[in-house]
């Protein structure tokens, strides 16, 4: 009944988003270290180490190939992490949402605000990697900056499913399954480390249903200058995942909190 | 103009009719009716599981109403929950302060959820922190506060939007007597400023001190309603003599006394309008210890809800 209606998007979402950014600001230094440290490790370790043997991939230096893929996958992991561990903490043990719901804000505002926040964190990590990539000389000109809004969209697209998981979880253990069964396979299969065209035909079809594949196509096109043949399709898939998962997450979080 | 204004003042702030909450096959609130007049303190008194929290949650639009009518400020809760909450302060049964923020930040961030901010709110935060005597702890994190301080901060937080109605779910449960008295003082002050209070409690003393009107609730139903004084007058005799001693002697006394009797362990409660004869008898029996007191809300409560243990 009450749960089966479309969520509204209102300014209240920004109040929830603002709360999170105020907390984040308090831990700015460690947060920044995480943002720069992890991708730097990947790029230097894998990009240089593996790149030494691989040489070029898909017509570009392996470091450029990897950096442009990691921007997308890092947005995925950042948004997923925030949408599960942090959201669950605020939803269950910390009862932050219970407190918020005693104000004029609604479940829709909380879910929209949290998704915006997850996407914002994804954005921070994306920018960090872009900076590292630029410093290492593998970003292709100013058009690479277009990746910034794309990374935000990628964040939204993974924030929704993560929040769905949070609304279904009873403990944190639940999230390990999602990482092992969903996030890690995408990380490995969706073209971050090698072009998806090298996968067997049967697998390739399935891989094109996964959002990270489309995210990687976009980031690689924008950052590394790879050919972008279907940007609209890629954007539409990401936006579709974000919208549908928002509607479902809002419904499930409402069912969980408004009992 | 005058009569209209008076009528306005008498219009109930909260009206519930046949209000019902069903959790699956379990009926937590079972068709209750009540009206809360402006500027009054209205209490829900009831044992664990009576349905008090569920009633408050329905009133604030935090859980769907299963059936019945519920209006606050003349607005139907089902459709105007956000508007109602904008004019209400809510103190939940368990504190849910934000552990990531200091005392003052807790208030500022909470204000932001109402769309409030700026110098006016900064000034209001100072006033509220003084009101709950937390001015000196403004930079502390909630985890560093005592239970009583956390509760006071929760109260201050609920006042950040200058609410007309303040809803308190067991405001003093788990606090020591000092902390409880401080909170009672603050609530009395709020009432004197014309705010309407809606509270739930297990404590008779709290209900007797604060509430102008009470309902006693059990198993989702309202068993009795009235001012604390009315309830005592209507439901129990004026005097109670509580006698402690051996079972046999007690039973013998019971047969003779003519009082209404209730036994709990080796205590016997004798309810009567005319205590003098029994007291005379008891004075001669040194094996029995007794206390004579006027009947109170607790006697009403126990009479209506029974003496057996809950949970
Ligand atoms: N979400 C729920 N699902 C199922 N049953 C519930 C739910 N919430 C409350 N109940 C049941 O409804 C009844 C009333 O609960 P409620 O919390 O309103 O009681 P209460 O009067 O506030 O009790 P207490 O004094 O312990 O706080 C209880 O039996 C409780 O177990
Ligand atoms: Mg309760």
In short:
Chain A has one domain (12-258). In chain A, α3 runs antiparallel to α7 (173-189) and α5 (107-135) packs across α10 (231-257).
How would you sum up this structure, described in words?
- The complex is a heterodimer of chains A (259) and B (311).
- In chain A, 75% of the residues lie in helices and 2% in strands.
- Chain A has 259 residues and is mainly α.
- Chain A has a two-stranded antiparallel ribbon with strand order 1-2.
- In chain A, a hairpin with a 2-residue loop joins strand 1 and strand 2.
- The two termini of chain A are 13 Å apart.
- Chain B has two domains: 229 residues, 3-Layer(aba) Sandwich (Rossmann fold); 59 residues, Alpha-Beta Plaits.
- The N terminus of chain B is likely disordered.
- At the A-B interface, helix 1 and helix 4 of A face helix 3 and helix 4 of B.
- The structure holds adenosine-5'-triphosphate and magnesium ion.
- The site of adenosine-5'-triphosphate has 12 residues of chain B, from strand 2 and helix 2.
Most extensive interface: A-B, 25 and 28 residues
Work out the count of structural domains of chain B: 2
Main sheet attributes: strand count, strand direction, barrel closure of chain B: 6 strands, mixed
Instruction: State the low-pLDDT regions of chain B, or none.
Output: 1-7
Strands across the major sheet of chain B, in which order? Answer: 6-7-8-3-9-10
Structural topology:
The complex is a heterodimer of chains A (259) and B (311).
Chain A: H1 12-26, H2 28-54, E1 56-57, E2 60-61, H3 62-91, H4 96-101, H5 107-135, H6 147-168, H7 173-189, H8 201-207, H9 211-224, H10 231-257
Antiparallel strand pairs in A: 1-2
Chain B: H1 2-10, E1 14-23, E2 26-36, E3 41-45, H2 52-59, E4 67-72, E5 75-76, H3 77-86, E6 88-91, H4 103-113, H5 119-131, H6 147-158, E7 165-169, H7 177-192, E8 196-201, H8 204-210, E9 213-218, E10 221-226, H9 228-235, E11 239-244, H10 247-257, E12 260-264, E13 267-272, H11 276-283, E14 289-294, H12 297-305
Parallel strand pairs in B: 3-8, 3-9, 6-7, 7-8
Antiparallel strand pairs in B: 1-2, 1-4, 4-5, 9-10, 11-13, 11-14, 12-13
Helix pairs in contact in B: 4-5, 9-12
């Amino acid at each position: 009944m009450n749960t089966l209606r479309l969520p509204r998007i209102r300014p209240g979402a920004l109040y929830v988003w603002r709360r999170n950014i105020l907390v984040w600001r308090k831990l700015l230094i460690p947060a920044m270290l995480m943002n720069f440290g992890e991708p730097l490790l990947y790029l230097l370790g894998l990009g240089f180490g593996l790149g030494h043997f691989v040489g070029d991939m898909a017509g570009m230096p392996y470091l450029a190939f990897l950096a442009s893929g990691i921007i997308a996958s890092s947005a995925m992991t950042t948004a997923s992490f925030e949408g599960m561990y942090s959201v669950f903490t605020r939803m269950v043990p910390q009862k932050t949402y219970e407190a918020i719901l005693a104000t004029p804000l609604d479940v829709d505002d909380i879910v929209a605000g949290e998704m915006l926040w997850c996407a914002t964190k994804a954005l921070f990590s994306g920018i960090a990697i872009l900076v590292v990539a630029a410093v290492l000389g593998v970003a292709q000109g100013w058009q690479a900056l277009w990746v910034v809004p794309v990374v935000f969209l990628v964040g939204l697209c993974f924030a929704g499913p993560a929040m769905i998981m949070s609304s279904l979880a009873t403990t944190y253990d639940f999230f390990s399954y999602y990482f092992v069964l969903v996030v890690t396979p995408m990380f490995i299969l969706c073209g971050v480390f090698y072009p998806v065209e090298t996968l067997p035909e049967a697998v390739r079809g399935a891989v094109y249903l996964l959002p990270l594949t489309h995210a990687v196509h976009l980031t690689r096109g924008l950052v590394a200058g790879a050919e972008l043949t279907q940007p609209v399709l890629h954007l539409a898939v990401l936006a579709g995942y974000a919208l549908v998962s928002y509607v479902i997450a809002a419904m499930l979080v409402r069912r969980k909190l408004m009992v | 103009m005058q009569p209209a204004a008076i009528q306005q003042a008498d219009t109930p702030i909260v009206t519930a009719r046949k209000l019902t909450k069903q959790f699956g096959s379990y009926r937590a609130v079972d068709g209750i009716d009540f009206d809360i007049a402006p500027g009054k303190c209205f209490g829900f008194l009831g044992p664990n599981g009576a349905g008090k929290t569920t009633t408050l949650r329905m009133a604030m639009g935090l859980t769907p109403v299963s059936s019945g009518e519920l209006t606050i400020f003349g607005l139907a809760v089902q459709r105007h929950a956000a508007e109602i909450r904008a004019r209400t302060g809510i103190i939940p049964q368990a504190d849910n302060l934000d552990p990531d923020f200091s005392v003052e930040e807790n208030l500022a961030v909470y204000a932001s959820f109402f769309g409030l901010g700026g110098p006016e709110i900064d000034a209001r935060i100072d006033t509220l922190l003084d009101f709950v005597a937390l001015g000196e702890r403004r930079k502390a994190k909630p985890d560093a506060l005592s239970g009583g301080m956390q509760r006071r901060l929760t109260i201050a937080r609920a006042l950040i939007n200058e609410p007309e109605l303040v809803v308190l779910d067991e405001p003093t449960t788990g606090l020591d007597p000092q902390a409880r008295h401080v909170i009672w003082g603050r609530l009395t002050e709020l009432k004197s400023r014309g705010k309407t209070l809606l509270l739930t409690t297990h404590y008779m003393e709290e209900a007797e001190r604060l509430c102008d009107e009470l309902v006693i609730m059990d198993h989702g139903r309202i068993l009795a309603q009235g001012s604390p004084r009315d309830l005592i007058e209507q439901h129990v005799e004026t005097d109670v003599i509580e006698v402690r001693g051996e079972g046999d002697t007690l039973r013998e006394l019971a047969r003779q006394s003519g009082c209404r009797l209730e036994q709990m362990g080796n205590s016997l409660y004798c309810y009567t309008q005319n205590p003098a004869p029994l007291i005379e008898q008891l004075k001669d029996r040194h094996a029995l210890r007794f206390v004579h007191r006027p009947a109170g809300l607790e006697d009403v409560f126990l009479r209506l809800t029974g003496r057996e243990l809950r949970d």
